Amino acid sequence: MAGSATPPNRIQKIVVVGGGSAGWMTAAALSRFLPSSFTKIELVESEEIGVIGVGEATLPTLHLFNQRLGINEQEFVRKTQGTFKLGIEFVNWGRVGNRFFHGFGDFGPLIDSVAPYQYWLKLHMAGDQTALSEYSVPSLMAELNRCAQPHPDPKSPFSAFLYAYQFDAALYARYLRDYAEQRGVKRTNAKIVDAKLRGENGFIESLVLDNGECIEGDLFIDCSGFAGLLIEKTLKTSYEDWTHWLPCDRAWAVPCESISPLTPYTRSTAHDAGWQWRIPLQHRIGNGYVYCSRFIDDNAAAKTLLDNLDGKVLAEPRMLRFTTGRRKKLWNKNCVAIGLASGFIEPLESTTISLIQNGIGRLIEYFPDRNFDPVLESEYNRHSIMEIERIRDFIILHYCATSRDDSELWRYCREMPLPDSLNYKMEVFRARGRPVIYESDGFKEASWIAIYNGLGVIPKTYDPLVERYSVDEIRRMLIEKRTILRRGVETMPTHEQFISQYFHTDPGGMA
Ligand SMILES: Cc1cc2nc3c(=O)[nH]c(=O)nc-3n(C[C@H](O)[C@H](O)[C@H](O)COP(=O)(O)OP(=O)(O)OC[C@H]3O[C@@H](n4cnc5c(N)ncnc54)[C@H](O)[C@@H]3O)c2cc1C
Q1: Positive or negative: CA dihedral 304, 307, 310, 313
Q2: Per-residue pLDDT reduced to its tens digit, 19-28
Q3: Residue 229 confidence (pLDDT) above 90
Q4: Would you name the residues annotated as active-site residues?
Q5: Pocket-testing residue among 319, 352, 357, 358, ligand 1, by greatest number of atoms within 8 A of Cβ
Q6: pTM for the whole thing?
Q7: Domains in the chain, start-ordered, CATH in brackets?
């Protein structure tokens, strides 16, 4: 944009409210794409209120965000005490004693235009007990505690996986703050006590701070977390509550000391009234118990968490309360809500940071001028709502497809009425093992298959095209595939070796 003629109605000042991951991701990205000569950016945060401080596991899409911001991966991993995440291990989901892996990768290329899962299904129906995860590179890497970059040759079976990061949320926000401030973002540490609206159209005009100062702006980005300071308290946008589908509403979070080996994945262990996360970082393990307060009291939930840690506790457990759902509009007048201010599904598949990233991308795509054409707002909302509802259905699947009936939460989840959209998807899958994927579905075929299969949802039959091969032919084919994969993975470095080889040196000093 630098050097081009200045559009007459351009947004001259953006005010970002909040300095958590959402606020600093937004400020960093906007400062990268809107030079300060074009638009001034100011971020207001209150150190006294602080940030939520969880949100440490991500999805592979974060690569794209980092790439677009020109972030150096080695520096990023070092400065955030980052580790690598190949997927999520689910323990006791589906049934007690069950264990499966949702890896960031597929189950291999199509065989005669048919998904390899269909061949596995035919073999499985013929009595073969080999786990589907034997054909997933990231699952094998997780099992053997290995880590590597995907192979650069797209024909290699070791090219078809992705990785995400796990990092310290406070260090992440600090890292992005440095990035944004270097690009001209002004930071103000103060508490916002009021917001003034323009009489003629109800747009936000300015924010009043506790030190008496007033901050004016054209566009306000609400990253104030669960407070929803502008989108809800000021603009009264209202909230769609999803507690009837996603009943967990509280979490205890606590860090503990690291143990060896350093595993390259997040673990989610289902308990009676919710589930526990375990996110290994370089310097500690992040843990939390997400639970439904209808089915367990807070003290019992804290005890469950503390009784199930791998290392010595490093801080007092903190409790977080939330209501799953979304704002009716994520963009309302001259305010766009990003992060927890826009809604919250729940952290089971670590989706919020990815939603933040997509919200920022969409805002840049539909970036308004001071006329705020309502069609931009409406398209932003249509697309964002579609995206968040598709993720919602994927998360509900983890709960509703369970066979567990050993506690109130799981009995409730088995019986609860589902969104029509999810009912339809499950019906199609049960018929023939074909996941239904729509536009903006964040999770693709392999992810849905991993969860259906992990929870024990087996379709009625397989793709008839698979019949061209006999059971013995398929068995030979699949044995060869899984032998190649396992042998290849066995040659990879361990997660710890991978980090110390590539990420402990200064970026400037790398070969
Ligand atoms: C239990 C739990 C686990 C989670 N795990 C994950 C995960 O693994 N992966 C993932 O992607 N996401 C996860 N999330 C979501 C993740 O925490 C958020 O995406 C992320 O931290 C961004 O939060 P935020 O910036 O929207 O809000 P916050 O971090 O709460 O920041 C809000 C900001 O607004 C400021 N503020 C609020 N009110 C005022 C005021 N009046 N004046 C001035 N400033 C104000 C605060 O000071 C703060 O700076 C999890 C969430 C929860 C609840």
Answers
A1: positive
A2: 999 999 999 9
A3: yes
A4: 85
A5: 352
A6: 0.96
A7: 13-82+167-240+324-386 (3.50.50.60)
